[in-house]
């Protein structure tokens, strides 16, 4: 019984991976975006304000119409490029809404490392969801000021 379940699970995973990797997305990707680095505090809630790190963000403004919304993707546990290239909803809905599309990389994943040695070097309090949400709020505020967007829709 266990070997049947294991074989079935492997077949499903194999089919998914093959399908996902075989079909290229039908939307733009990182090569069509502007990549920016945002300076963030390592500890958004106190700590030493001179300690900062760089958070990677991709921006696509070709759909954006003045007064349109900001579509913001909160980074997952991996390099942000994966989500820019393979997350279709923002791409398909961005154009009809005239949205500014922004993807932020989650702290401690990809190239956005508050500490070179990872969270073990910094301490687990810096990898908390509250720290990441505050990072995102800083980016959203900056994008809204720069582009004068109306409203924000968060994906993730």
SSE series: HEEEHHEHHE
Placed side by side, the strands forming the largest sheet appear as 1-2-4-3-5
Q: Which quaternary structure do these chains form?
A: single chain
What's the shape? globular
Instruction: Kindly provide the radius of gyration, computed on alpha-carbon positions and rounded to a whole number of angstroms.
Output: 18 Å
Let me know the average pLDDT. 81
What topology emerges from the helices and strands here?
Elements lengths: L1 H21 L11 E8 L10 E9 L9 E4 L6 H7 L1 H10 L2 E5 L14 H4 L6 H19 L4 E4 L1
Parallel strand pairs: 3-4, 3-5
Antiparallel strand pairs: 1-2, 2-4
Protein model, in words:
With 156 residues, the protein is an alpha/beta fold. Helices cover 39% and strands 19% of the residues. The chain has five helices and five strands. A five-stranded mixed sheet has the order 1-2-4-3-5, sandwiched between helices.
Give the gist of this structure.
This protein is of the alpha/beta class. It has five helices and five strands. It has helices at 2-22, 80-86, 88-97, 119-122, 129-147; strands at residues 34-41, 52-60, 70-73, 100-104, 152-155.
Features:
156 residues, 5-stranded mixed sheet, single chain, alpha/beta, disordered N terminus
């Amino acid at each position: 019984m266990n070997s049947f379940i294991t074989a079935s699970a492997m077949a499903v995973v194999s089919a998914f991976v093959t399908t996902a990797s075989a079909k290229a997305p039908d939307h733009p990707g990182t090569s069509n975006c502007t990549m920016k680095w945002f300076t963030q505090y390592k500890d958004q809630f106190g700590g030493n304000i001179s300690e900062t790190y760089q958070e990677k963000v991709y921006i696509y403004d070709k759909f954006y119409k003045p007064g349109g919304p900001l579509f913001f993707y909160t980074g997952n546990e991996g390099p942000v490029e994966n989500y820019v290239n393979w997350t279709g909803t923002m791409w398909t809905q961005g154009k009809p809404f005239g949205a500014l599309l922004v993807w932020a990389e989650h702290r401690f994943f990809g190239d956005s490392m508050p500490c070179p040695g990872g969270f073990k070097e910094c301490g687990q309090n810096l990898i908390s969801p509250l720290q990441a949400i505050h990072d995102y709020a800083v980016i959203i505020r900056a994008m809204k000021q720069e582009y004068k967007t109306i409203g924000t829709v968060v994906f993730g």
